[in-house]
Amino acid sequence: MAQVSLHKVVKRFEDTEAVRGIDLEIADKEFVVLVGPSGCGKSTTLRMIAGLEDVTDGEIVVDGVLMNDVPPKDRDMAMVFQNYALYPHMTVYENMSFGLRLKRYPKDEIARRVQEAARILDITELLDRKPRQLSGGQRQRVAMGRAIVRNPKVFLFDEPLSNLDAKLRVQMRTEIKRVHQKVRTTTVYVTHDQVEAMTLADRVVVMNRGQIEQIGTPNELYHAPATRFVAGFIGSPSMNFLPCRLEAVGEGLQVRLSDQIAFPVPPERVARYRPHVGRGGILFGLRPEHITEARPNGGRHVAEFDAFLEVTEPMGNETMVFFSVAGKEVCARVSPNAGAREGSPLRMGAHLDHMHLIDEASGRVL
Amino acid sequence: MTAASAAHTVPATPRKYGSMSRDRRWALCLSYFFLVVFAIFFLTPPVYMFITSIKTSQEISAAVNPWWVYNPSLANYVELLSSPVFLTFFRNSAIVSVSVVVITMLISVPAAFALSRMKFWGSATLATGVFLTYLIPETLLFIPLFKMFATFRDWTGIELINRWWALLLLYPTLTVPFCTWIMIGYFASIPKELDEAALMDGANYRQILTRIFIPVALPGLIAATIFAFTVSWAQFLYPLAFTTSADQLVLPVGIVTTLIKGDVFNWGQIMTGALLGAAPPLIIYAFLMDYYIAGLTAGATKG
Description:
The complex is a heterodimer. By secondary structure, chain A is an alpha+beta fold. In chain A, the strands form 5 sheets. Chain A has a 6-stranded mixed β-sheet with strand order 6-7-8-3-9-10, with helices on both faces. A 5-stranded antiparallel β-sheet of chain A has the order 13-12-11-14-21. In chain A, strands 2-1-4-5 form a 4-stranded antiparallel β-sheet, with helices on one face. In chain A, α2 packs across α3 and α3 crosses α4. Chain A has 9 helices and 21 strands. Chain A starts with a strand and ends in a 7-residue tail after the last strand. Chain A folds into 2 domains: 225 residues, P-loop containing nucleotide triphosphate hydrolases (Rossmann fold); 120 residues, CATH 2.40.50.140. The longest helix of chain A is centred in the middle third of the chain and has 18 residues. By secondary structure, chain B is mostly helical. Chain B folds into 2 domains: 52 residues; 220 residues, MetI-like fold (Orthogonal Bundle). Chain B has a two-stranded antiparallel sheet. In chain B, a hairpin with a 2-residue loop joins β1 and β2. In chain B, α14 packs antiparallel against α15. Chains A and B meet through β6 and α2 of A and α10 and α11 of B.
């Protein structure tokens, strides 16, 4: 059980700065997911925590002990790799017990722990097999088993599901969550898949270009993104961004998207947005799921407008529709019964309680 | 015209090769043709050696068909195997070759591990340097080496020339660079995550080498071992130059120097000795052939 702290951690490779001074506090038993596009420094951060990469600057502290110069074998962490990294010449049992055998644990203790981990992961009948006789999902389980038997302070996962097919990925995602609920070990998990991040994490750390964009629970990131990057990265399909202008209308405000379309700002946000009235460089952000067909008594702060549908994509449980507002494409999710047809107009409703205004220059959400 | 008639006859003939296309059959025919040609080319000398080895000296010098044995005799074998000198050669060769294999592996496996995995200053240059060493032929090396040995004796009083164990210093100059190079290629093909996983599991570098790298790269290790053994077993120039008295000689040089007396060539025994000398590598090949082939091909793409 362990607390992990990163203070102003920097990683420089010869001429590039992969990680640019990140601060992160990971609580005991917490499941933290580092997520971001490739090259954002998330894997490098994980490898620095593991000790596989040197820290250029800053501190990594585990349970109050400075870890910067502690070799990986003395950090008491276990890691699951993207390509599983099972030892090909050892059986599953030998793979899982390798770390314990190196530490000269008694034989019956090793056997007990391996059996226990195998039971948790449901791989008891595979213990005598070699890795090449296993499927991708089974290998992934063995890799996790190898981490669990060590009973380490921290689990590190480096994109563990990327090599699996979509269906298996969903299954193993649940599996990882189940295992974490059982063993309750502090976990740092790296992925580029925001769905994985949202479903697994207690807290998600969104990284971009070597820096942390935002740290928060999945719900916080979804409902209250701090930056345009987070707003666009979390959620699928991603948020619509449209250039807009704030206008004062009597006591209230309205967001003008085009000559035809202007939405009233919900009253509780008026004070927050008032300083930005009249200035340029503001983006209006609204997720596709918050633009639906207009419904009779559609709820608070729903602004209706007419859209001319250019493309519709029926998904069964819902239909994606695409239309243009002031030359920008907008995606919306409507009910399959809303009568959306390509090339015809539809009355839409924008749920403005979920709107965001973003300063285009700084990328901050206002 | 012929193509059309051939197409008509094809369905009529029973299909021996399943769905094999005609292109493939042609390729196979050509392969077999050349295989047979090469097999004849390479097997003729040993067959001729064998035929000669079971003939008496009279029959060898007689003007009869040299490819036929009229009075087969094992006299040459009996004579060689009961001669203490020949057995000394054999013993010297065996000790030298096995020791060289051991020395080579003890040096080149850790060296290859260090050069392929531990990035240190100059490691890439060193790896290339190792290979360049291998490219210098022994025919260029033996004179300076001889000179070095002589100088060494002048300084220390320790005689290295005409001592069979001095070969243990000489042969590794040939085997270590090549074996290191093979093993670098092998180790480089092991995914980096494997040693990282072992590091996380608490292994140190020595344990990663002995418990992960050596077992995983076993085919390459065997290829390198066979190479080292063959090179030292068949080495001719160094023992010819560095050893002279009969009790210090190894097999290839021993056969040539003791069985050729002036201009008298004892062909029957020379051939017998050569065949007996070729036996150990042959036996090793036979046992390790599968590994050896896997090793050579993998080395070809990764090295």
